[in-house]
Design brief:
With 334 residues, the protein is α/β, with parallel strands linked by helices. It has 15 helices and eleven strands. The longest helix has 20 residues.
Length: 334
């Protein structure tokens, strides 16, 4: 079913204001609650950086300990290893882990986007389109959105996966593999995308984007954390919602927060990556479609038998309903 926001009851104004003031004073007197959160160091996760930059987590009563990872795949692994309480990851690693970890719970999306992932090719190898990928060597980081993007592009282009030699590289080794000519191309996301283009020099790179792949990043926890840390998770969603409002009201807030959080990255790369994503909280049917479609693709690729996970059961909409009820429109979530 779809969830809708009910109106507040009126009356009792003379009592409500003093009680609210007392509640605020009590909340401010409490020490902040510690929450460990794994995030990916990418423009797609900009709302967490805006929140950090503007103090929305502290204002919500949280002391967030950040763990930064180059990919959401690694952030999610930390969550499953009980090293963190919450993680930010793209749909791809969530799907891959969900086959064996039904305890995952999705609290909200953090961004949606298209054309954020791309293949950067060496122009001197004569590849100018997806058709030219046949017989080529492409490096990517397995278990990430790059793997799913590559598979989607090949399928759309009617190119068998066996026609392309795909090798695995961790994110920090992709650009060097491209620069040295070890591979013909790499699959990357911002800010690695800009680094890869610069590594090949002016006019040395061909960048293949595609509209056949939609993406989203998700704020994910485990069922046991949701059951025992609900107030802290609710505070987290409130802080992210405030960051979302700040980013919407002030166009300079997101790029400034990214520049401060990722000082080693080129500001041009960060702005370019930011332009490719839409920061937003939400749980809708599109989120379910992204999860179901990816599960079907990976299930077939890995030869898994039986039905895929029921992602509607992995969605945990109650926190977002309390904070931004209009952002929850998914059918059948509990």
């Amino acid at each position: 079913m779809s969830f809708r926001h009910g109106g507040a009851r009126g009356g009792g104004v003379g009592v409500a204001l003093p009680l609210a003031a007392v509640a605020l004073l009590v909340a401010c007197s409490r020490p902040p609650e510690r929450l460990v959160m794994a995030r990916m160091a990418q423009p797609a996760g900009v709302l967490v950086y805006v929140g950090q930059d503007h103090g929305t987590f502290r204002a919500a009563g949280l002391d967030v300990v950040w763990r930064d990872y180059p990919a959401g795949r690694d952030a999610l692994s930390a969550l499953l290893a009980h090293e963190v309480d919450v993680a930010v990851a793209y749909t791809t690693p969530v799907v891959l882990q969900s086959f064996d970890h039904p305890e995952l719970r999705v609290l909200t999306t953090l961004h949606t986007g298209r054309r954020n992932c791309a293949i950067v090719l060496r122009r001197d190898r004569g590849i100018v389109s997806a058709e030219g990928l046949r017989g080529r060597t492409i490096a990517l980081t397995p278990g990430t959105s790059a793997e799913y993007f590559m598979g989607s592009l090949l399928a759309y282009s009617a190119i068998p996966a066996s026609a392309v030699h795909v090798i695995n590289r961790e994110p920090n080794g992709l650009v060097e593999a491209l620069r040295t000519g070890e591979v013909d191309g790499i699959v990357v996301w911002p800010p690695l995308l800009g680094r890869a283009e610069r590594a090949l020099g002016p006019n040395g790179a061909v960048v293949l984007h595609s509209d056949v792949y939609d993406e989203a990043s998700l704020v994910v926890t485990r069922a046991d954390v949701l059951a025992t840390r609900r107030p802290a998770l609710l505070a987290l969603i409130r802080a992210l919602a405030r960051a979302e409002a700040i980013a919407a009201d002030d166009p300079a807030a997101a790029p400034a927060a990214l520049a401060r959080a990722l000082p080693g990255e080129d500001p041009v790369d960060l702005r370019s990556g930011l332009a490719r994503v839409t920061p937003r909280l939400g749980l809708d049917n599109r989120t379910l479609t992204l999860l179901d479609t990816a599960a079907e693709w990976f299930g077939a690729r890995q030869g898994r038998r039986g039905p895929p996970p029921r992602y509607v059961d992995m969605l945990a909409p109650s926190l977002l309903l309390e904070v931004e009820p209009e952002a929850v429109t998914v059918e059948g979530a509990r």
